[in-house]
UniProtKB/TrEMBL annotation:
Species lineage: Eukaryota, Viridiplantae, Streptophyta, Embryophyta, Tracheophyta
Entry keywords, A to Z: Oxidoreductase
Keyword flag NAD: no
Family matches, as InterPro entries: ADH-like_C (IPR013149), ADH-like_N (IPR013154), ER (IPR020843), GroES-like_sf (IPR011032), NAD(P)-bd_dom_sf (IPR036291), Quin_OxRdtase/zeta-crystal_CS (IPR002364), Sc_DH/Rdtase_CS (IPR020904), SDR_fam (IPR002347)
Classification via SMART domains: PKS_ER
Segments forming domain Enoyl reductase (ER): 299-497
Keyword Heme: no
MF term (GO), any: oxidoreductase activity, acting on the CH-OH group of donors, NAD or NADP as acceptor
Protein name in the entry: Enoyl reductase (ER) domain-containing protein
Signal peptide positions (record): none
Highest taxon, organism lineage: Eukaryota
Gene3D superfamilies: Medium-chain alcohol dehydrogenases, catalytic domain (3.90.180.10), NAD(P)-binding Rossmann-like Domain (3.40.50.720)
Family matches, as Pfam families: ADH_N, adh_short, ADH_zinc_N
Amino acid sequence: MKLELGLSALITGGASGIGKALSLALAEKGVFVTIIDFCHEARGKEVAVLLESEISKFHQNLNFPPAMFIRCDVTDSCGVVAAFERHVGAYGGLDICINCAGIPTSVPFHKDETDGVKSWRRAVNVNLLAVIDCTRIAIRCIQTAKKPGVIINLGSSSGLYPMYLDPIYSASKGGVVLFTRSLAPYRHQGICINVLCPEFVRTEMAAKVGDKLIELWGGYVSMDMVVKGAFELITDESKAGSCLWITNRRGFEYWPSASEKEKYSISTSPPGKRSSTKTKWRFQITRSFEKVVVNTLSHNFRDATSIVQSPLSLPIKSNHVLLKIIYAGVNASDVNFSSGRNFGGKDQDLGSCLPFDAGFEAVGIIAATGNSVKNLEVGTPAAVMTFGSYAEFTLVHYKHILRVARPDPEVVALLTSGLTASIALKEAGRMESGKVVLVTAAAGGTGQFAVQLAKIAGNKVIATCGGKEKAMILKELGVDRVIDYKAEDMKSVHFSLK
């Protein structure tokens, strides 16, 4: 998600520590912020004033508060629901939710002889159960708005390895880590849910541990590092379902590592086959995107079209795929399309179809899939041959998706030119092996594919072109006899292919 002016964020535990730092950092980006905290009213309102001061630098004359403090115990489910509803009512939706509320165990586990209601049970309720509840409510708010959203749950390094000083805290944070990572499939709906696990940060909670012990772990992690990590999880959709571990010793590290994942991952590849490596691609699902539309019928493509902003509604249709377009193909037929020639009929009839999307072919990365799409994953490189390819995103039925190895520009040429050459040779021409194949205009897009396909099939190839440079290209492609009609009279050419 791109951090834009006018987004809204709700942060639990936002009146102190990491929650306060993240609240201020978002306010400095012009994001409207609601903080939920069980602190004293005066303290919460003081933080809200600081947030308003930053947000007001971007927004003036608002008829609603740029920031709000809501005093609420995160273990009070009804109160939390009311707080979320108040936020949505004020800002029209929820874009970012960060669950920071957390507490240590008030009594050491080995000394606690109570029923734990005010000690270890309370810690589990705040650190884990409340995070689950707030995440559940945030998901519903984002789904209702049908827009992309981000949820970050604050874990801890003690959720990745044992913390002997406070096993209850360690257990609850470990639960947050696995709970959050298990929500990775929500990325198909445009909801990125991640967990942030910093080591010791200079907060009131960490102060109880003691500086000497913290020095053994490399010292305090700076608040700037935590904010930077959170912003990375917000803005990079490819990290959906990730756990970001932050330490002074190792910096930023996504956990578990690839080698650790291999220990528990199940391969879906057939026996004996190795699955291909999938490259991670960085992209952002925004609330709107740009596309080219045809507004008036004209052979002059520039005059006929314009670039418009189109809203992106999530979740997408159950049997559709959202493709992030990286490369689109430019074709001579674009002008036939913009003039209406490809449709047939009278201009007055075609005019009723305006405006319509432009572009025939594209290659990119699958950004989201509908609930009924089972065989395509987010992050998979894919190509399409559908109208609407001159856009940042396109929504198509999953049957129109063509898997490709990589979203390279060469793939776009394969779609129209490559398929045309293949169909012409194999279907129309019934090409065999050991024959002589003549390809005219062979230096063009379709011609070059035809030359290569004919050679691969074991044929001799004669190719025509106009110009020395084009002739050189064809020779490099392996053409057996190149006829440059600018240098030779084709009617008088005699040759023999053995």
